[in-house]
Automatic annotation (TrEMBL), chain A:
Source taxonomy: Bacteria, Pseudomonadati, Spirochaetota, Spirochaetia, Leptospirales
InterPro entries recorded: ActD (IPR021776)
Pfam families, sorted: ActD (PF11821)
Keyword line: Membrane, Transmembrane, Transmembrane helix
Record-given protein name: DUF3341 domain-containing protein
Keyword DNA-binding among record annotations: no
UniProt superkingdom: Bacteria
PANTHER family per record: LIPOPROTEIN-RELATED, QUINOL:CYTOCHROME C OXIDOREDUCTASE MEMBRANE PROTEIN
Transmembrane regions: 68-87, 107-131
Automatic annotation (TrEMBL), chain B:
Record carries keyword Electron transport: no
Name of the molecule in the record: Hydrogenase
Pfam families: NrfD (PF03916)
Chain segments annotated as transmembrane: 41-65, 77-106, 118-138, 164-186, 225-245, 265-285, 306-327, 347-365, 372-393, 413-434
Membrane topology: Multi-pass membrane protein
Family under the similarity heading: Belongs to the NrfD family.
Superkingdom to which the source organism belongs: Bacteria
Keywords: Cell membrane, Membrane, Transmembrane, Transmembrane helix
Subcellular localization: Cell membrane
Length: 188, 457
């Protein structure tokens, strides 16, 4: 049976201290991600200007678990829609319209549908914002080209077996064109 | 040459981005209109539409100081231009969602060139539509009565079985989901603009707008899934909104309105007019912002084909209405349609037929589908026709069951001012948006370029 797993809700981790390698092509970043996974640098990340196909498998990140949120939020919205209309029309303020049943539920369907969609959409996006660490306007930008045409490999200091000089030479060995050691005190 | 490119060449599939652009070129080209100082043309157009908007706002103020008697509405024609405009604009909005959601689910790569502008068009069109909806109630300051809320008047709730309340829920859900979908897609592109900004004020502005997006692969993986989810949610949503708008009419017992064909007929009409508006805007945008490599003739060709197909569907619906009116043997129904075509508003009916059914037939010819002036004129004509379609439907009210209660509807200057004002508001918002945010989805266009692929294939 397909059940949600905690690691599917992987979170964005702040990039405060670690090593950043910059690559020129999507092939290079894909290769780098595979090697970093082999090296088992826990919590490493790639910075991409657009979603590169297949990078999740290369990095070993599981598929996002957000559809689960959509599913349960949809059920929640649907329930609210049914209950709210039923309770207001049949109990709190019963209105006899053309002698129809007080619980003429066919007419509730449009609003039930709208509330289901609304709730599913909004809760999913809220969870996405939480997991991606947005909005946060004061975040440091590691390199301006990373949102345009270059690709970054980020290995944080918190990674297991992190050794600065070793990581720098590892990233250089992968063909990283620029390798920077990022420290909190360098922050602009 | 990559294998994928070789296959495309062999199958003669046109590139979605022409001109041999690199990833960096894409960023530079698309960000250019946002970074340069606006041209004279932009300023002139903007000032013109802004003036129209301001005049419209003043007139709206006067209208509510005096009352709705200034409009041409009367008894029996209680629904005038406001509702015509509402249905027209909400229809325009549908193409945006269709392009961004339905074409996304069908994995149509060509949507990436046009989806951003189409989504923005949706938002502004729905805002304009919603403003008409609120204004037509006459006392817009009490508009919140449409929402269920705990109030001090005892157990008093809105009537959830009323199509007008369905409208409120449908339009507000549609607006919020479309806005979220649109903005979510914009975040990575705003981050691109932030990182390219040189002036401090610009950097600060985009820093706030971009929400602190860095482009982490973990965030991208969530974002991609959410785009898919929102597309899957918006697709039935877009069908439901215009279906519910059609219920405003179809749930009544008026001949000519009380028909089951209304929901699909309204949805097809919405897509039809929406695509016409997208073509109008894209033809201008690619020219003005020099984006011919991103909004290619292939894009326009595809949109023209959709316009033609939906035009045919709408034409079929017009025919079916007449056939069913005759076939039902209901004399009121027969009269309603006879009156539509040959009654006092017959001229509007024939404008509608010639604009909506005849004009898109030019797109049967490949040469004309690839001809910019032809498609531009056709798209404008279709929009005129679709406005008249809603006008014709509304004018069904002028002759109902009893000849003693028949009356004509003559729009006043205020009606026309409101109509022109909707265009003013729409284009003011659209022009402002073009300057601040990228007209084309930068990140998404990059995913359909030949050099996008990684090693995993």
């Amino acid at each position: 049976m397909y059940l949600p797993k905690l690691e599917q809700f992987h979170k964005y981790k702040e990039m405060d201290e670690g090593v950043l390698g910059i690559f020129e092509t999507p092939e290079a970043i894909m290769h780098a991600a595979e090697k970093a996974k082999e090296k088992d640098y826990k919590g490493f990340d790639c910075i991409l200007p657009y979603p590169v196909h297949g990078i999740d498998e290369a990095m070993g990140t599981p598929r996002s678990g957000l559809p689960w949120i959509t599913f349960f939020a949809g059920i929640f919205g649907c329930t609210i829609g049914i209950l709210f209309q039923y309770l207001t029309h049949a109990y709190d303020w019963p209105l006899n319209i053309s002698g129809k049943s007080l619980n003429a539920w066919f007419a509730y369907v449009p609003i039930i549908f709208e509330l289901t969609v609304f709730s599913a959409g909004i809760y999913t996006v809220a969870t996405l914002c939480f997991l991606s660490g947005i909005p946060k306007a004061t975040r440091r930008i590691l390199h301006p080209d990373l949102t345009s045409h270059r690709f970054g490999l980020w290995i944080p200091k918190s990674a297991k077996g992190y050794n600065e000089s070793e990581v720098v030479s590892f990233v250089k060995g992968l063909g990283g064109s620029e390798v920077t050691v990022v420290k909190p005190e360098n922050q602009k | 040459m990559s294998l994928a490119q070789a296959v495309r060449d062999k199958l003669d599939i046109p590139d979605l981005v022409t001109g041999g652009k690199s990833l960096k070129d894409v960023t530079v080209d698309i960000a250019k209109p946002n970074e340069d100082f606006p041209t004279k043309l932009w300023w002139n157009t903007f000032l013109l539409v802004l003036t129209i908007t301001l005049i419209d706002v003043a007139i709206i103020g006067y209208l509510f100081y005096e009352g709705l008697y200034l409009l041409g509405i009367n008894n029996p024609v209680g629904w005038g231009f406001f509702v015509v405009n509402f249905v027209f604009w909400i229809g325009i909005g549908h193409a945006g969602t269709l392009i961004s959601a339905v074409l996304f689910l069908f994995r149509q790569g060509w949507r990436t060139g046009i989806n951003r502008a189409a989504e923005a068009m949706t938002i502004f069109a729905v805002l304009v539509a919603a403003s008409n909806l609120i204004l037509h109630v006459g006392r817009p300051w009490l508009g919140f009565w449409l929402f269920p809320y705990p109030n001090e008047r005892g157990p008093l709730w809105v009537n959830f079985r009323s199509p007008l309340i369905w409208d409120t829920f449908a339009v507000s859900t549609y607006l919020s989901i479309s806005m979220v979908f649109w903005y979510l897609g914009l975040i990575p592109d705003l981050a691109t603009l932030r990182d390219r900004a040189t002036e401090t004020w610009r950097k600060n502005l985009y820093n706030v707008l971009a929400f602190g997006w860095v482009g982490s692969a973990r965030a991208w993986s969530h974002l991609e899934i959410v785009s898919m989810i929102l597309a899957a949610l918006s697709t039935p949503l877009v069908l439901s909104v215009h279906t519910i708008v059609s219920f405003d009419f179809a749930v009544s017992i008026l001949p000519g309105w009380h028909t089951t064909i209304f929901p699909p007929y309204f949805v097809a009409g919405a897509i039809f007019s929406g695509f016409a508006m997208v073509v109008t805007l894209m033809v201008i945008a690619r020219e003005v912002f020099n984006l011919k490599n991103y909004i290619t003739m292939k894009h326009l060709d595809n949109m023209n084909k959709i316009m033609m197909v939906t035009g045919l569907i709408v034409g079929l619906a017009y025919g079916t209405e007449f056939f069913i009116a005759w076939y039902s043997g209901n004399e009121y129904e027969v009269f309603a349609f006879w009156n539509r075509a040959f009654g006092p508003y017959g001229w509007a009916y024939f404008i509608m037929i010639s604009c909506n059914v005849l004009s898109p037939q030019v797109f049967w010819f490949r040469k004309l589908r690839y001809n910019i002036p032809v498609m531009f004129v056709a798209s404008l004509v279709v929009n005129v026709g679709m406005w008249f379609e809603r006008f014709v439907i509304m004018m069904t009210l002028n002759r109902d069951f009893l000849p003693s209660s028949w009356a004509m509807y003559t729009p006043t200057l205020f009606d026309y001012a409101m109509l022109i004002g909707t265009f003013g508001i729409f284009f003011t918002l659209f022009l402002l948006w073009c300057r601040i945010m990228p007209v084309i989805a930068i990140a998404e266009v990059k995913t359909v370029m030949p050099q996008k692929e990684g090693a995993h294939h």
